[in-house]
Amino acid sequence: MDEVVRLSDVVKIYTMGEERVEAMKGVSFTVKRGEFVSIMGASGSGKSTCMNILGCLDVPTRGSYFLDGVDVGRLSADALAEVRNKKLGFVFQGFNLLARTTARQNVELPLVYAQIPATERRTRALEALERVGLAGREGHYSNQLSGGQQQRVAIARALVNRPSIILADEPTGNLDSRTTIEIMSIFQELNRQGITIIMVTHEPDVAEFTSRHIIFRDGEVISDQPHQAKSAALPAEVAHP
Amino acid sequence: MTTLYQSLLIALRALRVNKMRALLTMLGIIIGIAAVIAMVAIGSGASKMISDQISSIGSNLLLVLPGSVTSGGMRSGSGGTQTLTYDDARAIKAECPSVAAVAPNVRGSGQVVYGNQNWSTVVYGVTPEMVDVRDWTIVAGRNITQSDVDGATKNCLIGQTVADNLFGGTDPVGKIIRIKKIPFTVVGLLGKKGQSPQGQDQDDVIYVPLRTAQRKLLGSQFPNVVGSIMVQAKDAEVLDKAQDEVTELLNQRHRIGPNREVDYTIRNLSELLAVTEQSSRVMSILLGAVASISLVVGGIGIMNIMLVSVTERTREIGIRIAIGAKKRDILLQFLTEAVLLTTCGGVIGMLLGVAGAKLVASFIGWPTLISVNTIIIAFAFSAGVGVFFGFYPARKAASLNPIDALRYE
Q: Domain of A174: which CATH number?
């Protein structure tokens, strides 16, 4: 198994007016291809900052971050945009789909910025929607979908560019427990198919479904252990009244 | 970088969502462009009407009029004497190389009778050249000829107004009318010319042969005298030269020198045209100033709404950046939206402006003139306003921090 992510001694310092906040105080870990990692910690522990850096939305103050062997800390803004587009897929807590836009158009969005021709965009978007179990819903607008379905569209959008990693930031934070299990089972299935997933969560229940736990406190990693993942396979589908 | 086409699709979708707002935002541009188009159309229509009237007098013309003379210490006004003769006219025609045609004429008025109809009108004694010099057309019958002039025949040409009043709808050619009780045969009918720049009806006129008028109709004291001489230059370039030639010739013929004051004046009708053109240029500049003010105001409206739109869509911008949009993709997206707004406004404004101009024109009876140039300039201007006023909001959108943008509620 090769390395996808290597953080070495990453320090991130924010300056807010007079105050200097050290959000990450020398964090190092590596993630291998095909892992399903959860990053946990209380709020303010630095896990969100870590996620932003992993997601190339922010760059480390010190230390280095290699993604697929490339030192992304040294890239220009445009190059970072390209990395986000080609190598990363984002899933957010608030789904973050575009309003008044169909499921398919939402999924196609990364491909638009990658300048993929329309016909190929369409096939790849439909394929990604099928992988998250939304075949046939491609014409629905975001507001016509339930929370779970919206999050699945977001996962399809993260998948569609065949990224090296999917980064999920509290992906189940806005969902009920049943839908949470649904979403986690999709993640597990994608992980079985070989996709690397890094998920930030503060819910231990959700972290149960992952195979490695990294725990943050006060900007440092205090624990990094493999975990026996619980299967999120659902009982047989029950029809809702 | 996304293609312009993609940005256009996104922009269209964004505008569709807020149709009412988009329309209200465009209103400034719509009104601005509509006002410009309408005013320019009406203004240039009006100035075209005026210059048409001026050129209806005839083109490249000099008007030679008798001047003032001093007699016993009293100076008469311009035209107070009868110093120009038919011979002067013929000499100008023969000896000035820049002159194309000469039309001497005498003017009088009289009562005209046909059957039980009568009408008071202006009667000119003219030579056949008058028709060409003044750009008349003859819509029925023929022009008077040189032999009519030489033989002092009792043939005449009548204008439309005279024909309408004496003959109603019937054909006047060949009919005999009485001018000051003398019978004349109508040999030709002049085409319609309309009003002169002074508002006179140019069609209320009768042309008789010059000699006939001099000898039989107007009963002048000096039978060879003419009231004025119209001189047509070969073209506009030699008009000044023609004026010099005529001046020189008349000075010679009238023996103008240190002891004799100039007894004629020459008026150049192209000066009148130049004055009109000058005033319509000033009008265009004023219109342009009004237009740019209204477009600037409209542009500020666009900028305002684009700033609101950027704030409203902060999250969307965050998503796009997170997903891989570059700075210039976002910039292009919002710039396209602004330009789309202004150009849509521009097109609607253009249509309204054209419609408004037509409406006004049909009410006050002025012609309107809508040039392709105006349309192109208006369109380019509205697009330019979009780029100018859309740039700041678009740059604001493009420079958002994705982390903050994603967290924005």
A: 3.40.50.300
